[in-house]
Amino acid sequence: MRSIWKGSIAFGLVNVPVKVYSATETHDIRFHQVHAKDGGRIKYDRVCSECGKSVQFADIDKAYDSPDGERVILTDEDFDKLPSAEKHEIPVLEFVPTEQIDPILYDKSYFLEPDSSSPKAYVLLRQTLLDTERTALVHFTLRQKTRLAALRVRDNTLVIQTLLWPDEVRAAEFPSLDDAPDARPQEVKMATSLVESMSADFDPTEYTDDYQIELRKLIDDTIENGGEKVVRVEDETSSDGEDAEVVDLVAALQRSVEAAGKNAKAAHSSSNTKTATNKDGSEKKTPRKKTAAKKAPDKEAVPAKQTAADKSSKSTPTRKGA
Asked: What angle do CA 243, 309, 40 make, to 5 degrees?
């Protein structure tokens, strides 16, 4: 695994240097959008709805449309004014009983590895959380976004799990349950008996993703049998559009590359030395002026639209032997 973040946990006067790693990954098979006729990859372009022209990522800002139909356009300078936590520090806000955190609030999980010659502070925090049976609430800033997160111990490793804000959890309001009749004692007794007969300790390795297994088998069989469904493709590089699936990564890097290219060109043109001829026929160099390259601000990637094939790749786990 490669770390995606480095910083430290601020635990009172104790500083715990850590590296952060993504704790989960998906095994879902990713699909591309292709032309059904010839299997060519589908590209798409960023086109302005007003002028109809293609727009470079460097010229794109973010906007919010209000319910009243007003569009507010914000630039990087506007976002820089917003408050954010220290990007390389995970401050502990308080310690709460673990059972008081509703599991519905848990979002993404990250492993923490000690990042110092001596992991003593890491071990101290880990043991303290275990002994007190509490979870630390922290602020965690990743990719310019600060979230509330839970810091806990899993298999002797510190784990951060980002939490949803309370207003991000929808209220379960279903009128059909208001007048629902209570279950009769005999029904509860029989249901309880059924639960007891099906009770067991949870072992996630007993369950398999049958959909992904069969999907992989389908793909392998199709490749083996060949036919019109298998198309031999070369390295597809095109400047007239971008892959619909990889635009997240491309868009994140494109602005920096374009800005670097413009700055390099400007620096090159300004560095060309003007020459004049001396009386003896030799060239006389004119001192060149130094120019400072202006650094373009980073911009977040524009998320690609989820394809219909991506949606279809989600599966429902089933238990072995069912």
From this structure: 45
